[in-house]
Amino acid sequence: MKAAVCTDTGIDAAIEDIAVPVPSAGEVLLRVAACGVCHSDLHVLTGATAFPRPCVLGHEVSGVVSETGTGVTNVRKGDRVVASFILPCGACEQCARGRPELCLEFLVKNRRRGVLFDGTSRHRTHSGDPIWMYSMGGLAEYCVVPANDLFTVPDDIDLVAAAVLGCSVFTAYGAVHDVAEVGLGDSVAVIGAGGVGSSLIALARAAGAADVIAIDIEEHKLTAAAALGATRTVNAARGDAVAAVREATDGRGVDVCFEAIGDPGTLRTAVDVCGDGGHAVVVGLARPGTPASFDMGRLVRRKLRVSGSYGASPGAAMPAVIRLAAGARIDLSAIVTDRFTLEEVTVAYQALADRKIAGRGVLVIDTRL
């Protein structure tokens, strides 16, 4: 099969012919329809996030079940499915406490070593040498996914666009519903209107937010944000974003601000645009060790909150986002603004690095699905 294999640090991955992976017990071989173009992968490509090489990236996938390992009962051959980027083991301390998004086994084995829970990778060269996998390693024609991480998709949802349910929308759902608890009439700001930011805007509106202010420095992203339901847009490259948000909210500030970039400066802005009792929720991934600062005096006196949000519980969030898409509460076709072929993988990630993708980009890997 064809796969995008990353061997060096840099925004490039070679299309190579590697072995079709074989699922073990409790796993599924997925014929990949599409894979999202995410900043998390870009961080690995550029070396901002340490990860072993050679590897196959891609953690936001949709496809069709091609084969099932022993013991799999929740899906069967031919099912249209999506997967969350978090592959919880179900047995570690965090999973046992009902926090599978913090799964220790996933963090240590997959996100640091590129293997599944048995300590081995499913991707291999034809000679049997391992190729490490980031989540399921979905930038390939086939990938292996633990069965408990797969969720069926109704026939009326575009399977290519559905790929974004597994990271962009899934991550936004956790931030909007589990951490911020956005409700009817709330005022919300979203800093960074790209891949995850697009989903934050759509889900905040679906949750009943009365006002959603999109903040970015790219006008084409703000135009796309308005199409997703942003009630106001602020171009931070053209003026003071904090002052603009304050003016838009009659000086009060917003109830919730989502930071979707992972930058100390935009985190400070997120805190500053919050009104009294407001909540700044950090969703963007920063380089490990990145310090941040904000006004601690105001944090205490105005009873502000600052929280981190990483994904969600797959078993609860994935069915929920699929229902939202099926019920047209969120428009996946508006979130997915750019499509590429697998052979254009380097073009896609360069476009992401250059901030040319308005919302979420996806690599269409099998046009027949």
UniProtKB/TrEMBL annotation:
Keyword Zinc listed: yes
Top-rank taxon: Bacteria
Keywords: Metal-binding, Oxidoreductase, Zinc
Cofactors (names): Zn(2+)
Keyword Translocase attributed: no
Domain Enoyl reductase (ER) per the UniProt entry, residue ranges: 13-363
Annotated InterPro entries: ADH-like_C (IPR013149), ADH-like_N (IPR013154), ADH_Zn_CS (IPR002328), ER (IPR020843), GroES-like_sf (IPR011032), NAD(P)-bd_dom_sf (IPR036291)
One Pfam family linked to the record: ADH_N
Similarity comment: Belongs to the zinc-containing alcohol dehydrogenase family.
PANTHER family assigned: GROES-LIKE ZINC-BINDING ALCOHOL DEHYDROGENASE FAMILY PROTEIN (PTHR43350:SF2), NAD-DEPENDENT ALCOHOL DEHYDROGENASE (PTHR43350)
Protein name according to UniProt: Zinc-binding dehydrogenase
Origin organism lineage: Bacteria, Bacillati, Actinomycetota, Actinomycetes, Streptosporangiales
